[in-house]
């Protein structure tokens, strides 16, 4: 898989290192020529291009039309939006992932701007904190498709209506799917006969329409 990353700061470089370790082809675009000169020696296994990723000519040089994924990872939200839009509209990149630096700008990062998936560090940290300390509450972890679909997690409380029930016995909403059950540091791939226990961390994929119904099934109460 060819991945093009715009921005060679700490975030962009970390992503590149992880992808390279997994055997993917990675190209980084960075407008700081001195930084490119230094990092290209430290990471020779990656392809490097010095230039402004907001310029179409630079993206042409990066052969963006051949990319499977573009990651807009600069420290500037405006630049990330421009890169995302150009990637999708000018080069028809199948998947565009964009970094959101300022939480107030998150609403802009949607399909209108060519963004398939947006990542906001503050929102992710909040979700992880809630996931770690919340029992009996449905916590949103990651959103897709402009928020119409999302991963949610709930740690089953002792009084959960789903406790001691098999998944096949639960009236799960049509548009919700349990994708994993975490129990005592063990990951269980859910099946119809999987029986849930108090303390289980249940991870599910839901839509806007099914989230509250799933909350009722697993938690037993809706939001006030």
Structure description:
It is a single chain. By secondary structure, the protein is α/β, with parallel strands linked by helices. It has two domains: 2-119, NAD(P)-binding Rossmann-like Domain (Rossmann fold); 134-218, Regulator of K+ conductance, C-terminal domain (Alpha-Beta Plaits), CATH 3.30.70. Helix content is 29%, strand content 26%. It contains six helices and eleven strands. The chain has helices spanning 10-21, 33-42, 56-61, 77-89, 121-133, 208-218; strands spanning 2-6, 25-30, 47-50, 69-72, 95-100, 117-120, 139-144, 149-155, 177-183, 186-188, 201-207. Strands 3-2-1-4-5-6 form a six-stranded parallel beta sheet, with helices on both faces. Strand 7 and strand 8 (149-155) form a beta hairpin. The mean pLDDT is 88.
CATH topology assignment of the largest domain: Rossmann fold
Radius of gyration: 21 Å
Output the helix-strand order: EHEHEHEHEEHEEEEEH
What structural class results from the helix and strand content?
Answer: alpha/beta
What is the CATH level 1 assignment of the largest domain? Answer: Alpha Beta
List how many beta strands DSSP finds: 11
Give the count of structural domains: 2
């Amino acid at each position: 898989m060819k991945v093009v990353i715009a921005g060679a700061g700490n975030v962009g470089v970390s992503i590149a290192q992880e992808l390279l370790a997994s055997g993917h082809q990675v190209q980084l675009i960075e407008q700081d020529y001195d930084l490119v000169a230094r990092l290209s020696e430290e990471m020779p296994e990656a392809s490097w291009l010095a230039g402004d990723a907001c310029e179409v000519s630079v993206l042409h040089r990066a052969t963006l039309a051949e990319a499977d994924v573009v990651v807009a990872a600069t420290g500037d939200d405006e630049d990330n939006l421009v890169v995302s839009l150009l990637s999708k509209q000018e080069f028809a990149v199948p998947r565009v992932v964009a970094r959101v630096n300022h939480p107030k700008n998150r609403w802009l990062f949607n399909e209108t701007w060519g963004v398939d998936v947006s990542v906001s560090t503050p929102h992710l940290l909040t979700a992880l904190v809630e996931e770690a300390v919340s029992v009996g509450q449905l916590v949103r972890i990651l959103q897709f498709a402009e928020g119409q679909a999302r991963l949610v997690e709930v740690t089953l409380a002792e009084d959960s209506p789903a406790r001691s029930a098999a998944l096949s016995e639960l009236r799960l909403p049509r548009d919700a799917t349990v994708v994993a059950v975490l129990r005592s540091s063990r990951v269980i791939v859910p099946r119809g006969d999987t029986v849930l226990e108090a303390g289980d961390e249940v991870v599910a994929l839901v839509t806007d329409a099914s989230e509250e119904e799933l909350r009722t099934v697993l938690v037993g109460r809706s939001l006030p």
